[in-house]
Amino acid sequence: MNLTDKFKANPALLWSGVALIACALAVLPFVLAMAGTTWVRVTNLAILFTLLALGLNIVVGFAGLLDLGYIAFYGVGAYTYALLASPQFNIHLPFWIILPIGALAACVFGVLLGAPTLKLRGDYLAIVTLGFGEIVRIFFNNLSQPVNITNGPQGISRIDPFSIGGFSFNQSDIIFGLNFSGPVKYYYLLLLVLIMVIVINLRLEDSRIGRAWQAIREDEVAAQAMGINTTRVKLLAFAMGASFGGVAGGMFAAIQGFISPESFVLVESVMVLSMVVLGGMGNIWGVIVGALLLSFVPELLRHTVEPLQRSLFGRSLIDPEVVRMLLFGLALMLMMLFRPAGLWPSKVRKRELTEE
Amino acid sequence: MNPLLEVQSVGKSFGGVEALCDVSLTIARGEIYGLIGPNGAGKTTFFNVLSGVYRADRGSFRFNDAPLNVRAPHEVAAAGIARTFQNIRLFGNMSALENVMVGRHVRTGAGIFGAVLRNAATRAEERAIHERAWALLEYVGLTARGNDIAHSLPYGDQRRLEIARALATDPLLLALDEPAAGMNATETATLRSLLERIRADGTTILLIEHDMKLVMGLCDRVAVLDYGRRIAEGAPAAIREDAAVIEAYLGGTLA
After folding, report:
1. How confident is the model over A180-202, as pLDDT tens digits?
2. Strand B204-208 with B173-177, pairing
3. Which of A66, A119, A268, A282 could form an S-S bond across to A71 if both were Cys, CB 3.0 to 4.6 Å?
4. Separation between Cα atoms, residue A45 and residue A195, nearest integer Å
5. In which domain, by residue range, is B236 found?
6. Does the residue B136 lie in any domain?
7. DSSP state of A61
8. Sign of CA dihedral A288, A291, A294, A296
9. In this complex, do A218 and B85 lie within 8 Å of one another by their Cβ atoms?
10. Sign (positive/negative) of CA torsion B71, B72, B73, B79?
11. Interchain contact B71–A (C-beta under 8 A)
């Protein structure tokens, strides 16, 4: 009997499990705050990357289109927010207006990328998307002349935080005797968005469009013969994935208060893709696990490698960053050797790789 | 005769090779129409031109009393022509049921918003898709296999699943590309009764097949292609006696 059947047989078990997780997630930021606000910030970034991974999962996992420039949409969302809520142009729109605009802008860019590349498959698509990601970043870097839009490599600073009325997300408030610091507030907001995105993903997967994506991934010719307009349906995947990236980007800009083109380099795209692949392409829960792991483990290493070396050798021999990349590379290699379908693979991928 | 599909002097060349040359034929509503010919005669090319995979260089199609402008395969499916493939092309890693559900895509309309909001209309549509898919699996005799992964099914079942998936698009014309290829005698017999039932239920069938016993026993009319040209058309009995057909198949006149 697998987990789903167990839950079906005993709904009380499911609900108590959900309640337990909800409680844990609710108190988590306060527990983390005890170890230092840094950890709340790290968690927030981890959630942002989970949002990104879930967005990319639509394109790569569901529709099977390899996208190596995904971070560009994150960048478009972030810059949209930054330009509309900072002293750069002295525009200060509220966040609940900008986030949808950012999602829409990213969506438009998704279609812009998708439309000319739809005829490409596999490796070729990967190369074009990689180029696209770089082009967008270079634009951010150079759109300071002749008219200064993005402020070039210096980036945009003093970006407005989220605020509703007098309630601002970057200052502490005492509510019910508890100290809600800025990062803690963002944590709850991010959690809310994450839950929404998970629900949207789950619903998309099990829908007419979701099946069409799967069919295209399995056999494009047969999918067309079944009356699926593959051009349209693929564009939809690009657009959906991109809008999630745009929303995440907007939140990133507000949380950091500062963005520059450096946040949107190729390595970031590769990182998000690694999260999707490592966790289990196509399986929403696997992707979440992958994103959280790849966000937290490097931070943990950052905080343990240096002290460990000091206590062992009396001084720091190897730069923590080097150890981080070394272990990351090793982990990826071991994964591909022992669990090629990911830590928590989708049923489909598992079949693909085991039964032939 | 009440024609469902009229093909008028269709031609298709690949470089210097004329795969189809001036092919005309008419398929009547409710019949099983056979298309035969030696290997390389252009049968599959004809299929691909009809289903929009290739574009015809010359000629035209009329389908269901309206001109059929073949531009893209999905438009052909929407017009009411469903096809199967010579080398089975199922969605291998999806379940049998999901394969048939994909076939309903073209007759349903839920989009992104429906999927995300799950409003009453979308839920009703999903239920209808489910029910129809199960009904079609039962129709082709695969009820017990519904939740099995498509590529794990036995060969004959995969063929029948492909037919169920094609039927899910509510076709007026079901075009089958060598459905009996590789089947044993029992499987072919099951297939034959299935095709007869589909015809009896009102769907016209275009059948490309190498199994002459099946074609001659099942089809109302047969057309013969050779080197891209239609060399004969008529009832199976007449085709069997046709001198040009015998020559095409046996490579010379009978002494």
Report:
1. 777 888 899 999 999 999 999 99
2. parallel
3. A268
4. 16
5. 1-80+205-255
6. no
7. I
8. negative
9. no
10. negative
11. no
